[in-house]
């Protein structure tokens, strides 16, 4: 018997034929899509366990946020008016003070709020790199969402030693990988050439050898000093660093690449690695004199490029659809019009993102046999009607506020904007309480008009050890680039 039937929908399948059904039905049985077909008269009187009349609505695959840091969801608005260097100083300080000062309750509330925001924004899968991955795995699993999570490994930025971090990463993998009915999986997530010692990279290589099916998720070329930083680990450049440790292949996820060039793009494509692009974070702060994301070269070599939202404290956004729109506008501004079509962008948020995470046999398109991760979007409003070119409407006009219903693994997590899988008021109350504790303990002053950091930066109250190790490894250029 069909568990869920959605009928009379415009179904954007994102399948290999790019099929769009003008009047379609989706049947879900045991969490999987059992049929995607034209709506029959009998569908409207179906005896399925749950029936959704989607007349005038669009159904697309669930959205996938390909790169996210989640620990500091609760700092929204605090950093928004700081320049990039000031923000980084406060960010480093929070990373080193929040855990002992605020405790697990702060991060638990942050993860719960993040899950609620992702769910209500139509994001059904997130690829996260965080310092509190256990809390994240449990929050994602209990909310009904799907997530890939890696403990962020960065011994130049974290007081814990490389060995300690690697032991914890192994424990996390053994405990949480392939849990919550397979919705929660683990990755191996070194912070990148800027934050990791040679010793840590050696340990990462051992982890990768022991867990060959896991994705390797890292930052690369997000600084003009990237080659110098890689040299500190005995490599010619960041790609050579990964290659030396046998970490560059089709299971590798490379984030940012802001300062990569055409040759780097070719090497990435040759390896089959995937690129996670987060455009707004850099355009928001204009982070110094820099080249821009090398999109034409990546396209030339047919690299799989997908989109992520990055840190919530950078620009306070959870709308992945709008991030895709920004990606196109910024690319067009830099390189000329028509860098991506609307359908390209939709695929980057769905099937291409699923391929990057190694999940394209399970999610990313609406096809029989795949898990039922889908989003119902209301376009039957004056803001959207009348229209043609539906992909353009989805990527240019629709926002996360148009998301009406969210299904993951066949379970309805939100229907007609009513969240079913989480206690919304409890999540909001915890977030409010912990946000107030954050402000009290750190000395931030906030009002409706804005936010002001403490008079004496909390950066001065943390141990200098991680920063001094960074100077030893990379020279004064690291501090000048990142925390001056």
UniProtKB/TrEMBL annotation:
Pfam families: Amidohydro_1 (PF01979). The keyword Hydrolase applies. One of its GO terms (molecular function) is hydrolase activity, acting on carbon-nitrogen (but not peptide) bonds. InterPro entries: Amidohydro-rel, Metal-dep_hydrolase_composite, Metal_Hydrolase, MTA/SAH_deaminase. Keywords: Hydrolase, Plasmid. Residues 58-412 form the Amidohydrolase-related domain. PANTHER family: AMIDOHYDROLASE-RELATED DOMAIN-CONTAINING PROTEIN (PTHR43794:SF11), AMINOHYDROLASE SSNA-RELATED (PTHR43794). This is Cytosine deaminase-like metal-dependent hydrolase.
């Amino acid at each position: 018997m069909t568990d869920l039937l959605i009928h009379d929908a415009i179904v954007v399948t994102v399948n290999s034929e790019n099929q769009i059904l003008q009047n379609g039905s989706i049947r879900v049985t045991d969490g999987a899509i059992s049929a995607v077909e034209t709506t029959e008269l009998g569908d409207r009187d179906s005896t399925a366990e749950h029936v959704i009349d989607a007349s005038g609505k669009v159904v697309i695959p669930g959205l996938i946020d390909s790169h996210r840091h989640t620990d500091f969801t609760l700092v929204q608005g605090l950093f928004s008016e700081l320049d990039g260097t000031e923000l980084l100083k406060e960010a480093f300080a929070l990373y080193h003070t929040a855990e002992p000062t605020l405790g697990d309750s702060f991060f638990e509330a942050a993860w719960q709020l993040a899950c609620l925001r992702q769910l209500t924004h139509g994001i059904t899968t997130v690829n996260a790199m965080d310092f509190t991955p256990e809390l994240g795995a449990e929050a994602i699993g209990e909310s009904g969402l799907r997530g890939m999570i890696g403990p962020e490994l960065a011994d130049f930025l974290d007081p814990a030693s490389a060995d300690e971090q690697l032991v914890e990463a192994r424990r996390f993998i053994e405990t949480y990988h392939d849990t919550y009915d397979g919705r929660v999986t683990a990755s191996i997530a070194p912070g990148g050439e800027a934050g990791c010692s040679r010793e840590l990279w050696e340990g990462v290589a051992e982890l990768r050898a022991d867990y060959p099916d896991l994705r390797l998720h890292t930052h690369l070329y997000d600084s003009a000093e990237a080659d110098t930083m890689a040299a500190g680990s005995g490599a010619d450049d960041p790609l050579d660093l990964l290659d030396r440790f046998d970490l560059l292949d089709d299971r590798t996820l490379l984030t940012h690449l802001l300062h990569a060039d055409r040759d780097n793009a070719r090497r990435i494509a040759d390896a089959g690695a995937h690129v996670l692009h987060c455009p707004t974070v850099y355009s928001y702060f204009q982070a110094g004199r820099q080249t821009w994301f090398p999109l034409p070269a990546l396209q030339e070599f047919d690299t799989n490029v997908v989109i992520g939202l990055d840190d919530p404290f950078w620009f306070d956004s959870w709308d992945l659809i709008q991030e895709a729109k920004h990606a196109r506008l910024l690319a067009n501004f830099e390189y000329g019009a028509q860098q991506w079509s609307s359908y390209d962008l939709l695929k980057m948020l769905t099937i291409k993102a699923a391929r990057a995470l190694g999940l394209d046999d399970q999610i990313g398109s609406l096809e029989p046999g795949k898990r039922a991760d889908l989003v119902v979007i209301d376009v039957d409003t004056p803001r959207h009607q009348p229209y043609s070119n539906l992909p353009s409407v989805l990527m240019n006009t629709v926002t996360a506020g148009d998301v009406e219903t969210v299904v993951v693994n066949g379970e309805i997590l939100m229907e007609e904007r009513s969240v079913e899988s989480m206690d919304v008021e409890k999540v909001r109350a915890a977030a409010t309480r912990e946000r107030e504790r954050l402000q009290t303990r750190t000395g931030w002053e906030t009002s409706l008009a804005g936010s002001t950091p403490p008079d004496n930066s909390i950066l001065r109250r943390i141990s200098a050890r991680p920063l001094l190790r960074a100077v030893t490894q990379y020279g004064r250029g690291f501090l000048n680039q990142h925390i001056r």
